[in-house]
Amino acid sequence: MTDVLSEPAAADRLRPSRLRVASAWLATTAGAFIVVLLYLVVLLVIAQLTENSALSYVVAALAALVGAAVLARGSARIRGTRSRLSRGVCLAVPLLLAAGVSWAWFGAPATHTPMPGSPAVQYWDLPTGSRIAYVRTAGAVSHAEPVLLVHGGPGAPSTTSEEFARRLATAGFAVYTYQQVGSGQSSRLDPDEYTLARHVADLDAIRQELAAPKVVLIGSSWGGQLTAHYMAAHPGNVAKAVVASPGAMSDDSVDDGSLTPSGADDQTDQFTQHPRFAATYFLAHAGGLRAARTLTPADTADGLYQQFARSLDMSSGCPDAAKSERPADATAGYGLWANIATVASASKAPDPRPTLRHDNTPVLVLRAQCDYLRWEVTRDYRDTFPSATLLPIDAAGHTVLADKPAETGAAVAAFLTGGALPTTPYTPAEAPWPR
After folding, report:
1. What SS3 string covers the chain?
2. Rounded CA gap, 420 and 414, in Å?
3. Please, which residues have CB within 8 angstroms of residue 218's CB and are 6 or more apart in sequence?
4. What pTM was computed for the model?
5. What is the pLDDT of residues 21-67, one digit of tens each?
6. d(C-alpha 23, C-alpha 12), whole Å
7. CA 14, CA 31: separation in Å to the nearest integer?
8. pLDDT tens-digit map of 414-430
9. So what's the pLDDT on residue 113?
């Protein structure tokens, strides 16, 4: 009788407590996440070192398999014996999670809108190695200097500049809307080749292709920054320049960031709403550009960039302005790798302002009321160039040339031809519009 009664008691002693079971599963869960983290670290490191996606996935999968096997062997005893179920869970779950994370981050396609083809598109095959797509807009040409429209981004060719270009063509200029290398229908490069110096070299090679001693540059956003650096590198090659909603000339020119408070809030919101783009963007900026490019197909990367850019509020400098998402074709041809690598290169470039303070080239600066860049960024151009003129543009956002093509076209045409400007130049230090 004593032996019979002792059997349940012995079984109870062998059965693990609920706390022990909970702790075991908690440890297993933590171990699974460690295996996934191991997989991602190995994947990114191998991709960064080898730039071979197949090899990266194979090595990372083997690392995850070994990690999962170790986790399975070390799993806790459930109900007094080493459970096959727990071992299977420890082996399968981390591998499935790793596969799911890599697919969600790198493999899943993103809608990509290419630059639409057009019989008007022509190409320059430059001695720099870049093949540059462009559209020429001209009527009866009466001015010797060609006009080059320098788009923003980097890597963001304009699809809304036709009306502005036609207005300048009507004034007697030959206007060239070109797509910078790495974007639109222009050639793509390896990430290390997207540099500020390469864009400057391409721009001067275009000038030589046109056999023009001097050109007129009209730079929007990043294009304003590129225009400033070109003028610093090639003084005397620019007859006149226009910068519209220009980006900061140098990282040293802004102490508290270049965005308005509302612009910074909007950008932060969009990063949280586009986590896949944010992960790719920050990985690349943290030094993992080769890994990101190796693992993410080019069309997918460009699609992520396009989705993010479409959601940005171009008029967030006016917090009360109605926000509307831009259509898909507004970001057609955007190139993510050109953007990330060029921005990284530009951040290390020498400050051009000491040279530009001695450049007497006439420069027109257009400041949009609702630009998401701070007033100080725009004012820096007016205060740096000795012969600069600044005109405020009411009720326009960062894409001021597209927002107000008639108004800006008339102002730029008057500036280039020596006519009377439509409004009085703005000279005070404070912003034109109170906040």
Report:
1. CHHHHHHHHHHHHHCCCHHHHHHHHHHHHHHHHHHHHHHHHHHHHHHHHHCCHHHHHHHHHHHHHHHHHHHHHCCCCECCECCHHHHHHHHHHHHHHHHHHHHHHHHCCCCCCCCCCCCCEEEEECCCCCEEEEEEECCCCCCCCCEEEECECCCECCCCCHHHHHHHHHCCCCEEEEECCCCCCCCCCCHHHCCHHHHHHHHHHHHHHCCCCCEEEEEECHHHHHHHHHHHHCCCCEEEEEEECCCCCCHHHCCCCCECHHHHHHHHHHHHHCHHHHHHHHHHHHHHHHHHHHHCCHHHHHHHHHHHHHHCCCCCCCCCCCCCCCCHHHHCCCCHHHHHHHHHHHHCCCCCHHHHCCCCCCEEEEEECCCCECHHHHHHHHHHCCCEEEEEECCCCCCHHHHCHHHHHHHHHHHHHCCCCCCCCCCCCCCCCCC
2. 6
3. 147, 148, 149, 150, 227, 241, 242, 243, 244, 401, 412
4. 0.90
5. 566 667 667 778 888 899 999 999 999 999 999 999 999 999 988 88
6. 19
7. 25
8. 999 999 999 999 999 99
9. 92
Beta bridge partners of 179: 133
